[in-house]
Amino acid sequence: MKGHLLSAGDLSRDDAELILTTAEEMRSLADRPIKKLPALRGRTVVNLFFEDSTRTRMSFEAAAKRLSADVINFSAKGSSVSKGESLKDTAMTLEAMGADAVVVRHWASGAAYNLAHAGWSRSTVVNAGDGTHEHPTQALLDAFTMVRHLGPLDGRRVAIVGDVLHSRVARSNALLLQTLGAEVTLVAPPTLLPYGVETWGVETGYDIDAVLPKADVVMMLRVQRERMTDSYFPSTREYSRRYGLDARRMGALQDHTIVMHPGPMVRGMEITADVADSDRSVIVEQVTNGVAVRMAVLYLLLGGSEPALGGAENVQSGTDGTGTTTEETNA
Amino acid sequence: MPPTQESDVQPEGRTVLDARDIDRALTRISHEILERNKGSHDLVLLGIPSRGVHLAQRIAARIAEVEGTGIPVGALDITMYRDDLRLRPARTLSPTDIPAAGIDDKIVVLVDDVLYSGRTIRAALDAMNDIGRPQAVRLAVLVDRGHRDLPIRADFVGKNLPTSTSEKVAVRLSEYDGSDSVTIL
Amino acid sequence: MTTYLIKGASILGGEPTDLLIADGVIKSIGSQASTGLDRRSSPVETIDAAGLIALPGLVDLHTHLREPGREDAETVETGTQAAALGGFTAVHAMANTDPVADTAGVVEQVWRLGREAGYADVFPVGAVTVGLAGERLAELGAMADSAARVRVFSDDGKCVADPVLMRRALEYVKAFDGVIAQHAQEPRLTEDAQMNEGELSGRLGLRGWPAVAEEAIIARDCLLAQHVKSRLHVCHVSTAGSVEIVRWAKARAEAEGGWTVTAEVCPHHLLLTDELAATYDPIYKVNPPLRTATDVEAVRQGLADGVLDIVATDHAPHPHEDKDCEWQAAAFGMLGLETALSIVQATMVDAGLLDWAGVAERMSYAPARIGRLDNHGRPIAEGEPANIVLYDAAATRVIEASAMSSLSRNTPYAGRELPGQVVATFLRGKATVLDGKLA
How far apart are CA C169 and CA C382, in angstroms? Predict the structure, then answer.
């Protein structure tokens, strides 16, 4: 999937590791007096949001601006019920404005694919969440956070707990974490596991207490209250009793185990306040890391004449690999 | 990023500096830095990745031997400041590692392997601008091969090497390439 | 009226022979076709049909002509032109127009438009419920008694989900030998459904349309038809489970007598699978959705066995903007008339599952019987109405969306190479298609 980031499943292990090591460099920028790099000067990044998500938009905006890109925010109102502005017309408008990259959040699964492949625009597309499909940069920032705390993820056990059915975060994480060698267990009431999940290559379980003691990472997913009215579970009380992460369950975790949440949290539903605010919680750090990872993605997709993702031959620029000197290739 | 080539393959071409030559050149550069600076106070060495970092560390070690005290040494990646960033696929970043004390009011010696067009050094000066304000910036290079595109010169040179623009200068360092040599290809 | 002498056509794939068509009927077949010719009375056009197969004019029980209401997608004229190019001489126009074909007035309008266009006979399907709302019966009797003589009733696009309403409809149409063609889709199980529920829907994050939502309704309706001794037709069967349920119901109906279940399969369900949804290209969005390879295998076998009586196109034209968008925002449906026979050849005939006589049965005789059409679906025999298709099964063509005769372009086969080409179509002796083009 050269030139775009649409699915975590499109990333090879080399791609994923390149993003994570690049993000490590980007993160060190936070400690410098001037938190800005010139790499995307003159590039235009459009945040195209068909669905409200202030935190994701701000994260991408910060990432693009720290790389000196010009940022245009475009919020298109509309839902699956009232279609509002069409994605195609918007895409063609952005194309005419000379957008180099479009960061798209959309209520429709596959919208980022359509944007990249329907011939509406030539911009680089970054999927910032499409329907209940994927959210690859969230998975990357989650993996980045895990690596910072646990080192390489090979053989690490990650439990993802909650509304897997409606979660693009769970889908992207399941794909990326497997690529990085982790063992993933999805835990949810059977109603909130997708049909066919047994083909995903991950473990699944209905019993959170059986999974927690072995987990190195526990990722709690948001559970919207309206799922209750759709009979996915009988009551919020029963949900939090059976699947919520509270202090008692936190006591069953190994000492090194970290607790994550993609946000926004529904405190008291899937996670209690004392767990969310505990030392194990890396939830705030996930936000910081989100900017670094998105900088890495934007840099690798837009920083050069062509993207560095999706083809190993692009990763080495020749300088270091050919025995010639840096100075010569810069001449 | 480790080099992709086999590290123990002998480079082709004409060897102009062997391991001992490089060793002597670095020792001389170390002494010149100390002499110019009248000691090691306020010195910070910043190597430009990849090989410049190893050279900076070697020079720092020699200075430590002479002075009996270590000096801060770091790495300054210039990738995103390159003026040809857009001409090639996006490049892998190398670590930037600024010593804890920073570079404000320090004497920063940039260290690189080859000085050629001067564009890398221009990028390094830009990169440093975003990190702090040194008292002064000096430049140490193992090889100066001429053909400058920019008004930049080195303060400390291991060897001046007249080349034609069609030639390539290959610097190999044991930390990176398995052995030390400078060859003209 | 032109007299046509068709030379060397192979009727249902049999030995080459000649046919003489005059005055709207098949005058003679065989060696006497050319000798009995009276060249003075009317112009005669001779058609070299060597290598071509002659089939009875195809009958589609399931077509969306969109007129009235969505003339930007298709009109009766353009839709029947597409039908003729596909070898059809009769199409049943579904009721989900705007206004809905739920009164004698609307069905007569559609019927009349079909007669005026002249490319294929149009038999309107009447809505089962007023406005397709699923709340109360439309005036089924009035539509049956109208000039359009409606016999097939369907809320297609929507399921008659209310079991009481379905029972009443099945009972009521017995008075005029009608049939209820059910769009079997349990609505609660398919709310906002986007594609087949399976391994892929979970991965793609598209809401699933489970097989059980189709099968549960089919099972219920078969039992209702049995209970009230009526005629049920199951639209667009798409799953292996549905085939089994229909097989079971037919066995019971045959044993008991007095009630019947018939079923149709669409060409796209014979060929395409849900894997295509992975492209998120809404050209593959259809209702019922494309299913798995196992289901495709089952519906092919069901069609071969006769458990599925007919092939019906579910030709569903949509304007470009309704398909050039996000999958979830896109309309359901795909074109079918101009490619149906080729798909059946590719999936059934070339696969050895059906011979050309079988094709005639599934695409002409049986749909005409279900629709109670007198003058369509007749064998190619002397004295019969001259509704005939000449088909070149040896030809191949690469489908181009822009080359479709339909007003819309939403064919899922664009870029595919398909076998076969309709060379000529005759409607009551009048050529609607000659040399593969509208006559």
Answer: 39
Is pLDDT of A5 > 50? yes
* CA A119 to chain CA centroid, nearest Å: 25
Beta strands in chain A (DSSP E): 44-49, 70-75, 101-106, 124-130, 157-161, 183-187, 203-205, 217-220, 258-260
Tokens 């430049």: give the residue. B139
Residues of chain A in Cβ contact (below 8 Å) with chain C: 80, 83, 86-88, 106-111, 113-114, 117-118, 130-134, 168, 171, 194-197, 199-200
Closest in C205, C210, C324 to A109, CB measured: C205
Residues of chain B found within 8 Å of residue A317, distances taken between Cβ atoms: 88-89, 91-92
Search chain A and give the residue with CA nearest C195. A109
Q: Among C90, C86, C82, C59, which Cα is nearest to C264's?
A: C59
Dump pLDDT digits (tens) for C219-250: 999 999 999 999 999 999 999 999 999 999 99
Please report the ipTM that was assigned to this predicted complex.
0.88
Q: Do A87 and C324 touch (CB under 8 A)?
A: no
Tokens of C39: 């060249």
What's the topology of domain C57-370? TIM Barrel (3.20.20)
Assign domain C3-53+383-438 to a CATH class. Answer: mainly beta
pLDDT digits (tens, 9 = 90+) for B26-85: 999 999 999 999 999 999 999 999 999 999 999 999 999 999 999 999 999 999 999 999
Pairing of strands C3-11, C16-22: antiparallel
Q: Domain A8-134+286-315 belongs to what topology?
A: Rossmann fold (3.40.50)
Second CATH level (architecture) for the domain A136-282? 3-Layer(aba) Sandwich (3.40)
Distance CA(A294)–CA(C194), nearest Å, equals 31
Please identify which residue in the block is written with the tokens 């068509």: C21
Residues A269, C424: Cα–Cα separation, whole Å: 68
CA dihedral of residues B140, B141, B142, B144 (deg, nearest 10): -130
Q: Render C16-64 in DSSP notation, one character per residue.
A: EEEEEEETTEEEEESTHHHHT--TTTS-EEEEE-TTPEEEEPEEEEEE-
